């Protein structure tokens, strides 16, 4: 039997939602110290089990708030699940919120090392790939400018360049990904396509069913934090379409 590249076992994720109105920070800390803050527990994911085999391209479908991004963040290691475990074999390129690990006071060059470390790349590896990252980002002399002076497109370009410098075994794509202007977008799409051509395993979140159908061979459908369908793309798309009628 085929060994899964990604395995999600009994994963649940609880968030604490504040149920009270707190007017300012001072009041918040007073309530915190007096243990007067009340939370409502909210389970964004509930006992999710999933296996993704090598070379599969899995679409993650579901309505707003179903838990799609939370699941991707847990698989990428950005969030730790409240319960359960995730194993991923090989290198991951998580194209989620690009540049979330950036430090605004540091230059682009310094952030390459910082963000690289956030993604778990060894320092020597970053040093080796440093020029390639700068070249792909097309930031030129701006690489020595603090990140706080970058436009949002420039930050995304640097984030994309760092996250894709590895040859990943697993590519995590969230459609919220914003990657600069039309020209740079094309370049990113070409890079993603080249990863597809090499047979990378893909996890893809999108609200666009045609886009998911174009890219993916399999899909899951999440509803209120639970997987309610898991199978071939056509079968799961049909269930999703029925739900969104
Ligand atoms: N940090 C957080 N704190 C509290 N609640 C959160 C947090 N992150 C997510 N949630 C809640 O978890 C639920 C699932 O969110 P998630 O972003 O995973 O949904 P989604 O399926 O990706 O939705 P969308 O299609 O709108 O992007 C939502 O109800 C959201 O409010």
Automatic annotation (TrEMBL):
The organism of origin for this protein: Anaerocolumna sedimenticola
Residue intervals of the ABC transporter domain: 20-244
A molecular function GO annotation: ATP hydrolysis activity
Protein known as: ATP-binding cassette domain-containing protein
Protein's UniProt keywords contain Membrane: no
Family of the protein in this entry: Belongs to the ABC transporter superfamily.
Keyword ATP-binding: yes
InterPro entries in the cross-refs: AAA+_ATPase (IPR003593), ABC_transporter-like_ATP-bd (IPR003439), ABC_transporter-like_CS (IPR017871), ABC_transpr_TagH-like (IPR015860), Bact_Polysacc_Export_ATP-bd (IPR050683), P-loop_NTPase (IPR027417)
Key words, A-Z: ATP-binding, Nucleotide-binding, Transport
A GO CC annotation given for this chain: membrane
Record-linked SUPFAM superfamilies: P-loop containing nucleoside triphosphate hydrolases
